[in-house]
Design a protein that fits this description.
Layout lengths: L1 H28 L4 H6 L11 H9 L2 H32 L5 H11 L8 H10 L6 H25 L4 H8 L4 H12 L1 H16 L3 H6 L8 H4 L11 H32 L5
Helix pairs in contact: 3-13, 4-7, 4-10, 5-7, 7-10, 8-9, 10-13
Length: 272
């Protein structure tokens, strides 16, 4: 038993090193200069070049790409949570003809690959003159985020007793008041989970932003980082500095909501 435990500890330690090293490598490589990085990509920096972050942020126009990503992410997440919450509530609380078919269609949406719709979506946007608009980039983001959000919210609300809603109706509350003043606060754990999942998907989304946005000023952060890759050379230290900067908003959002993520996943599990 002791030998098995020792082997397990060694394997876990090795797995931890393999998992953590790429993150550390990106962090310390962003503090090298281009020449030092080219000589030895794994060595520690001999001196710290924080100017890589300044150049990436201003010369590389990361500030613009961060603003575009924030704009698209905030609107997309807001619409996804609002539409997903209302839809999930009605699917969980009301029985109507075609309800199961509608729910199955939403679940099927989780199986549709993004890349399978890129070309038809691009053609449709081009014919409707919707290309190069940040606001219209929100539409596919919300569409692909909704199936999972609806599934999680619908499963969670089904586990919530309906008696509080019935009591609200008896006291004279209407449907909208009950929905947003009674049910919505009770759904905060699963809504927090949906919020962070949707934010991560939108913030890191690449294909739609690449195909539907051509203007340099409207690019989001994942597409904007490709500007550090030239035709003949790649400025790896500045690229890695840009990657580190782009991760900061994700870490902040996660730290604000991580406690509720586990609560939402556990409480929103489908019963029996």
């Amino acid at each position: 038993m002791a030998s098995v435990k020792a082997v397990s500890n060694v394997l876990l330690a090795a797995f931890s090193v393999v998992s953590i090293f790429p993150i550390l490598w990106v962090l310390y490589s962003s503090l090298k200069n281009q020449q030092e990085f080219s000589v030895n990509i794994l060595s520690l920096p001999s001196s710290l070049h924080f100017d890589n972050y300044v150049k990436a942020f201003w010369d590389g126009e990361l500030y613009r790409y961060l603003g575009n990503s924030a704009f698209v992410s905030v609107i997309s997440v807001g619409l996804t949570i609002l539409i997903g919450f209302v839809t999930g509530y009605f699917l969980s609380r009301f029985s109507f003809k075609g309800r199961n078919v509608l729910y199955a269609m939403f679940l099927f949406g989780m199986l549709v690959p993004v890349y399978g719709l890129l070309v038809p979506l691009f053609i449709e946007y081009r014919n409707l003159h919707l290309l190069d608009h940040r606001l219209f980039l929100v539409l596919p983001e919300v569409t692909f985020a909704l199936p999972l959000v609806i599934f999680l919210i619908e499963s969670f609300i089904r586990s919530v007793p309906i008696e509080m809603e019935e009591a609200a109706y008896v006291d004279g509350a209407n449907l909208a008041s009950t929905l947003f003043r009674i049910v919505f606060p009770m759904c905060r754990p699963v809504l927090s989970t949906c919020m962070i999942i949707s934010f991560l998907n939108v913030w890191n989304e690449f294909p739609f932003a690449l195909v539907l946005i051509n203007s340099q000023d409207l690019k989001t952060i994942p597409v904007g980082l490709t500007n550090f890759v030239g035709q003949y050379t790649i400025n790896y230290p500045q690229l890695m500095a840009g990657i580190n900067v782009s991760i900061v908003p994700v870490i902040v959002v996660y730290l604000c909501l991580y406690k509720r993520i586990i609560q939402g996943m556990v409480a929103g599990a489908v019963k029996g």
